[in-house]
Design goal:
The structure is a single chain. The chain is mostly helical and about 100 residues long. The protein folds into two domains: about 35 residues; about 70 residues, High potential iron-sulphur protein (High-Potential Iron-Sulfur Protein, Chain A), CATH 4.10.490. It is about 30% helix and about 5% strand. The protein contains two helices and two strands, in the order ααββ. Strands 1-2 form a two-stranded antiparallel ribbon. Strand 1 and strand 2 form a beta hairpin. The longest helix has 26 residues. The protein is elongated.
Length: about 100
C-alpha cells in the first residue's frame, strides 16, 4: 500500500473545499436577498436618509453614503449594505445624518 495515501487527509481536504464553497454561496445569497432601504423606513426618517445627497440641505460637500466609514458596498458600486441600517442596501449617492468620515 502506498504510504502517501491518507484517507483522513483526503477527507479533511474535501471538507475544507466544500466548506469554502458553501460559505461563498451563502454570502452570495445574502447579498442577493438584501433589502433596499426606503426613505419612509422609520430609522431612515429618524436619520434623515435620502437616496440622493443633492436633496439634503444638511449634507456637506463630499459626504455621501459611498464615502462613509460604515458603508459596506464595494468601491464604485451604485448601492451597498450599511451597518447603520442593519445591512439594508443604501444608494452610494445617498446621505444620512449618521455619515462618518472614512479617515
Amino acid at each position: 500500500m502506498n504510504e502517501s495515501f491518507n484517507p483522513l487527509r483526503r477527507t479533511a481536504l474535501k471538507s475544507l473545499v466544500y466548506g469554502a464553497l458553501a460559505t461563498t454561496v451563502t454570502a452570495s445569497r445574502s447579498e442577493a436577498q438584501a433589502v433596499a432601504l426606503k426613505e419612509d423606513d422609520p430609522t431612515a426618517k429618524a436619520l434623515h436618509y435620502v437616496e440622493d445627497v443633492h436633496r439634503s440641505k444638511d449634507a456637506k460637500p463630499g459626504s455621501m453614503c459611498g464615502t462613509c466609514a460604515v458603508y459596506q458596498g464595494a468601491k464604485g458600486s451604485k448601492e451597498g449594505p450599511c451597518a447603520v441600517f442593519g445591512g439594508k442596501l443604501v444608494k452610494s449617492g445617498g446621505w444620512c445624518s449618521a455619515w462618518t468620515n472614512i479617515s
